[in-house]
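#help-structures

NK: newbie question. if I give both the sequence and a SMILES, will the prediction place the ligand too? trying with 2-acetamido-2-deoxy-beta-D-glucopyranose
OV: yes, paste both and it writes out the complex. here, I ran yours:
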Amino acid sequence: MVEIVLFAMLIFFKIHIVSCLDLMVDDFSHEYAQHGDARRGVQQWNLLQATLNQAAKRLEGSFLINASAVAAGFAAVSADCLLGSARELGHDGSEACSGRENDWLMEPLLALVGRGLLLIYFTLRAASVSEKCTRTRRFINSLFIAGEGGLSLDSDRAYLVRYIDDSAAGFYVQGVRITHFAVMKLFYGGCALTFAIIARMSRA
Ligand SMILES: *[C@@H]1O[C@H](CO)[C@@H](O)[C@H](O)[C@H]1NC(C)=O
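OV: that's the protein plus ligand as structure tokens.
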């Protein structure tokens, strides 16, 4: 119990950092909307991207350790449940097949699911930083600065939009950009595995 609370604290601490990054991207859009200077925008985006990369690099080590711990835990629990190592270890073969034999797996499984959900929440927040970087480009594109004769074709702004697009900024873990789609796949896989284990446990 204490472990999961500590784990949750660690994750919420990391989420706090990711939320700050999220706010920085918002702040960039806000400032650009105010000054409308593409050259300054390029410089600020450069700085923002460097900050994002640096923060992601600091966070990725601990994230990878925690994610692989949860993945290994799921692998161990599913091996215990699906391959039936409990049955082999049990002293009485006939009784071992009863449903109660697998009950001891419930507690570690619940702890793993709790950790997994916290990690998914963290990756979701990290993915929203990446998505926000993509949206910033659209936002800047949609801002039009009225020139002398109404709408002016602003090539500086087009350059900034192109620059943001080419920089592909976002939250990277080991060179992989975290997006909502990737988190969804992870969540789907986790749900399917948990469901399979629980179905197997209640059937056994
Ligand atoms: C998660 O990562 C932190 C920092 O590396 C580590 O102290 C902690 O033990 C890890 N937790 C799990 C469950 O792996």
